[in-house]
Backbone:
């Protein structure tokens, strides 16, 4: 390898049995994660959100440019504006604005099992919206000029770590991706070289929250993994 500064690799290795137990314990925890569409407006400590974002910021990424930004929306006015803009796009997606839907019949059929529509009250009810941006340029200095690498992959991993940390903290989440999402850049006052990737809705579930039975259908290990 080329000459470069280094520090010791600090991972603590574990006995095999403890490794198995820890992996299975985290698996069991994450198997309880469900997308939530019914949120309480109960407060959530800001420190929890900060810690989850800090965890996401440790994700592996191209050239260590860390090409992400997390805009946390707590303002009721901002949340209402985002909901209104998102629902306008959703009505076009579902064809609820009187025009033909942007989504194909096949896509709409796949969503039918989940019961989704253009109404997104959770965007206003939940205490926090975390709008995740992918920085196509910027580098570590965020100068808007330096090329970033493997941006989608890097930010996708960071989002997974964000959601995992929030779930471990006992919070419900939902990933929302209105299309197009350009309005989020203006709403969050972000530069033109950043691309909004998703909204992560965060809060506590309402007391009467439910999930679609269809969401419990998960592919078994034999179907999602192969051993070569």
Residues:
């Amino acid at each position: 390898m080329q000459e470069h500064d280094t520090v010791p690799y600090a991972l603590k290795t574990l006995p095999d049995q403890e490794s198995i137990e820890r992996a299975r314990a985290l698996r069991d925890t994450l198997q309880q994660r469900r997308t939530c569409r019914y949120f309480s407006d109960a407060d959530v400590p800001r420190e929890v959100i900060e810690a989850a974002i800090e965890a996401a910021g440790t994700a592996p990424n191209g050239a260590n440019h860390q090409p992400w930004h997390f805009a946390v929306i707590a303002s009721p006015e901002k949340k209402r504006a985002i909901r209104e803009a998102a629902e306008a796009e959703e009505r076009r997606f579902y064809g609820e604005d009187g025009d033909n839907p942007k989504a194909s019949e096949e896509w709409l059929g796949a969503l039918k099992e989940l019961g989704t529509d253009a109404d997104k009250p959770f965007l206003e009810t939940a205490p926090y919206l975390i709008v995740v941006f992918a920085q196509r340029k910027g580098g570590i200095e965020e100068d808007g000029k330096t090329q970033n690498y493997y941006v989608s992959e890097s930010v996708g991993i960071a989002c997974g770590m964000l959601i995992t940390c929030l779930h471990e903290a006992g919070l419900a989440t939902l990933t929302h991706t209105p299309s197009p999402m350009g309005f989020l850049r203006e709403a969050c006052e972000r530069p033109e070289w950043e691309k909004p990737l998703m909204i992560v809705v965060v809060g506590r579930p309402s007391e009467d929250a439910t999930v679609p039975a269809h969401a419990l259908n998960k592919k078994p290990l034999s179907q999602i993994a192969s051993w070569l």
Notes: The chain is about 35% helix and 15% strand. The two ends are 29 Å apart (CA to CA).
